[in-house]
# Entry
Amino acid sequence: MEFPNTYQQVLTIPTGATTGARIVINGITGTIQVYNSSNVLVDTIGGSTGAILSTDGSSKFVELNEGQILVGPYSGGTPDEFSAAVFAYTSTPSIDYLSVISPIDNANVGHNDQASMLLQAGAPGIGNGGSGQGNPAVVFIDELGTSAQYMQISGAIIKTGLTGTSDFVWHPAVAAANFSIIDLQYRLDAEDNVIYLGQVTYTGLTTSGAGAQIITTAAPANYRPKHQWKFPVVPNSGSGVTLGSPVCQANINTDGTVGLQYSGVLTNGTRILIAAQAPLGNIA
# Structure
C-alpha cells in the first residue's frame, strides 16, 4: 500500500538542489521560481497577483501583471514597477484603447514626465472626436499634462486630431464689412500652423491705395500666431486674374484676424484669393 506525501510543500528540480540551475515550486507562496546556472533568480511565476516576471538577473525586467506588460529597471532582486514602461489595455462603454507609456526616472528632472501614446478604437468615416465617437486615432499626451508633446515621424502626416476637439477640421470664416465670403476657411495643420484658404469678394465702393479688414472677429486662442505674418494674395476681376492691378497683401494678425493691404484700384466685385499659412510659434 502506498501513502501519498501530503506534507511536501516545496518541490525542487533537480531534487535536493540548493544552488545553480534549478526550478523551485513553492506550494506555500504559490510561486514557481527559475534560477540560472549562476544561481541567479531570473523567472518567477505566480504569487498573490499571478504575475509572470522575467529578468536578465541584473538590471532589466519584463512583467505580465494584471492585464499589463511592464518593462523597466531591475535592481537588488526587485523590479522597479513605478519607473517601468507600460503596455496596457483599457475598455469602457465609451472608449477602447491600448496605451503605451514611456519609462520614468524621478531622480532625473529631465526624465520625470512620461510620454503616452493611445491607440484608440473608433468608427471610420465619422470625423474627429473623443470617447470613441470619431475615427480610429493615435493620441499623444504627456502624463503630467504640463508640457506639449511633439512627434518625430518619417513620412507625410495626412490627418491629425485631438481627443474631444475639432481644431483640425475646416472652419468657415466670417467676413468683415465690405467683403463677402465665397469659400474662405481656416484650420490648424499637424505642423503647428494655421491655414487660411479660399476667396472673398470686395463689395464696397471703388477705392485705391489703402487697407481693409477681411476678418475682424478674433480667432480662438489656439489659432492665433505669436507674430503677424504677411502673404501675397491674388486679385481677380471676375474675368480673370489681372497681375499687378491691384497689388495685394494679406496680414494674419496675432489675434487671428485677417487684414488686406493693396496698391492700385480696388473695385466692387473684385475677388481676392487667399492661400496663407502662418506658424503659430509653439515649436521652439
Summary: Residues 92 and 165 are 20 Å apart (CA to CA). The two ends are 83 Å apart (CA to CA). The chain has three domains: 10-67, 84-166, 171-279. Confidence is low (pLDDT under 50) at residues 128-132, 158-164.
